[in-house]
TrEMBL record:
InterPro entries recorded: DUF433 (IPR007367), Homeodomain-like_sf (IPR009057), WH-like_DNA-bd_sf (IPR036388)
Protein name in UniProt: DUF433 domain-containing protein
Superkingdom to which the source organism belongs: Bacteria
Length: 42
């Protein structure tokens, strides 16, 4: 499953921490979250 940057940001706002998010969405990696944040910041 592909997640958009917007969806990753929504999930970050919903989940209490990144570890919980990564457990729930096993296809995500910490680098994916970092890249989504960098993209959103630009």
């Amino acid at each position: 499953m592909r997640l958009t940057v917007r969806r990753v940001l929504e999930l970050l706002a919903t989940y209490s921490n990144q570890e919980e998010l990564l457990q729930e969405f096993s296809e995500l990696e910490p680098e994916d979250i970092q890249q989504a944040l960098i993209y959103a910041a630009t």
